[in-house]
């Protein structure tokens, strides 16, 4: 693979390429005569489905019809550089010296052109595979805002961000990871905003990845995160270009991976998983209200089953008498302890949710409805679970759906079980102890050198304007503390009503 093409004869070059690619059925070879001269045969190699046939036809036409002056008198041809400078067509073209570069180009969708008598080969950029159209991501819906989302093409994804940030300081650095997949990775950042050393740290972690293939950004996420054994997500992922552009404008770094619409954002903090783009596209009163709703949904999803089990099992005196009698009447026919009942219902709910997710879309919706209504009602009538437990699990499940980040809701589903078991075995002591263990764990982890619970810990007053609540846009004049330039906008941006209108 590393041998130089200039040392191979014309038959050896073509034979070596066909042998390396294993005579694959999608490997296409087209022969032609350079400048229409039979003394100088040529051929091109490309993979059908990856290369654009229109670009190839244009390149071959330029080689066959034009450029007769490139054939010198003694019967020798000009160099590859002279051919490139003389032939003009709408495609990038470069000279190729080694067999490895030529084969890698073919596998990437380019076309390799060989001409007898020319030592080097020509590599024409002819990538032309079918891409999915830009559409709204199904996992990150919003009511107001842009409807475009990332696709599986890395160049389309970077272009969507470029459309939003027309700043010459926006940088896109490239890497290739995977000995077999050779996946393109782009590291995006704004040079005068990103924290010193952050980009170098991202590149250092990426360069240490030694693997045969990167098929999705989740491969990278798992190999560069700060807390690999923690259920908390220390790297944010998104399919929305506006979300990635907003992160870059705050001084963060985005990692684009080819063949996937999911982009990674570092560093990230816990509070960002509760926030949604709608918070900034609506007025600040609306954004703040629904952000509070999502925080309440987070707490309900995490703690409601545990609190119910704790109160019913150990602390009846904390329940109002009328409510306690209602719960007791519903449980008098249930043969299981409340902890086992809650674990059974949680597992059943997770089973129905996973089945609805993995099955075909029309069937999955039907399974979710049938499982929620019929199975739940049948379980109550059979005396296996109490009606109040069904209500608690249903409210918990609905609350988990209110979390904007799907990856964060997965962590909630995991944390719910140890908190439930601790509450059902030790009561209030177990509940409070497990909760503080989770809190201390969140305080101890970091995301690319930044505290995971920042700006709450360490506390930064100016960043509180966009944590629990969303202050008016004209008050969000400061970027996060880790940004190199923290000034977001000029002063005196508050709307001012002219005096003649005030009267």
Structure description:
α5 crosses α8, α10 runs antiparallel to α14 and α12 runs antiparallel to α15. This protein has 503 residues and is an alpha+beta fold. The chain contains 17 helices and twelve strands. The mean pLDDT is 85. The radius of gyration is 31 Å and the shape is elongated.
Query: What are the secondary-structure elements, in order, as H or E?
Result: HEEHHEHEEHEEHHEHEEHHHHHHHHEEH
Taking Cα atoms only, what radius of gyration do you get, to the nearest Å?
Answer: 31 Å
Number of helical regions: 17
Instruction: Kindly state the number of beta strands.
Output: 12
Which spans have pLDDT < 50 for at least 5 consecutive residues? none
Order of adjacent strands in the largest pleated sheet:
1-2-4-5-3
- What characteristic shape results from the CA principal axes? elongated
Which short descriptors sum up this protein?
single chain; five-stranded antiparallel β-sheet; 17 helices; 12% strand
């Amino acid at each position: 693979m590393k041998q130089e093409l200039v040392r191979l004869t014309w038959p050896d070059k073509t034979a070596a390429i066909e042998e390396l690619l294993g005579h694959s059925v999608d490997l296409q070879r087209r022969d032609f005569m350079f400048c229409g001269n039979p003394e100088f045969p040529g051929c091109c190699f490309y993979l059908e489905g990856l290369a654009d046939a229109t670009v190839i036809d244009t390149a071959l036409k330029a080689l066959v019809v034009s450029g007769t002056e490139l054939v010198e008198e003694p019967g020798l041809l000009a160099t590859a550089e002279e051919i490139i400078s003389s032939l003009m067509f709408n495609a990038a073209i470069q000279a190729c010296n080694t067999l490895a570069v030529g084969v890698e180009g073919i596998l990437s969708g380019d076309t390799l052109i060989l001409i007898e008598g020319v030592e080097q080969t020509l590599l024409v950029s002819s990538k032309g595979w079918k891409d999915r159209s830009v559409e709204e991501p199904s996992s990150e819906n919003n009511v107001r805002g842009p409807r475009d989302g990332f696709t599986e093409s890395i160049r389309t994804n970077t272009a969507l961000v470029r459309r939003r940030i027309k700043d010459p300081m926006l940088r896109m650095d490239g890497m290739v990871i995977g000995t077999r997949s050779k996946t393109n990775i782009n590291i995006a950042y704004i040079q005068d905003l990103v924290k010193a050393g952050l980009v170098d740290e991202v590149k250092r972690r990426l360069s240490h990845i030694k693997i045969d293939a990167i098929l999705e950004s989740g491969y990278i996420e798992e190999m560069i995160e700060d807390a690999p054994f923690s259920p908390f997500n220390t790297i944010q992922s998104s399919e929305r270009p506006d979300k990635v552009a907003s992160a870059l404008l705050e001084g963060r770094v985005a990692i684009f991976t080819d063949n996937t619409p999911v982009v990674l954002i570092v560093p990230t903090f816990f509070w960002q998983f509760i926030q949604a783009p709608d918070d900034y596209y609506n007025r600040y009163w609306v954004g703040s209200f629904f952000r509070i709703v999502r925080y309440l949904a987070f707490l309900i999803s995490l703690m409601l089953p545990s609190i119910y089990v704790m109160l019913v099992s150990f602390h009846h005196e904390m329940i109002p008498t009328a409510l306690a009698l209602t719960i007791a009447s519903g449980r008098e026919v249930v043969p299981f302890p409340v902890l086992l009942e809650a674990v059974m219902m949680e597992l059943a709910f997770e089973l129905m949710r996973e089945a609805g997710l993995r099955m075909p879309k029309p069937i999955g919706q039907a399974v979710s409805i049938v499982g929620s209504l019929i199975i739940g009602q049948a379980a109550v009538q059979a005396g296996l679970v109490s009606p109040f437990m069904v209500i608690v699990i249903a409210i918990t499940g609905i609350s988990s759906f209110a979390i904007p980040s799907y990856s964060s809701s997965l962590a909630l589903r995991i944390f719910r079980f140890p908190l439930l078991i601790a509450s059902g075995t030790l009561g209030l002591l177990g509940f409070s102890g497990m909760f503080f263990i989770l809190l201390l764990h969140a305080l101890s982890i970091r995301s690319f050198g930044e505290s995971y619970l920042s700006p709450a810990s360490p506390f930064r007053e100016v960043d509180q304007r966009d944590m629990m609540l969303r202050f008016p846009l004209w008050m969000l004049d400061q970027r996060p503390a880790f940004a190199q330039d923290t000034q977001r906008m000029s002063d005196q941006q508050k709307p001012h009503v002219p005096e003649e209108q005030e009267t």
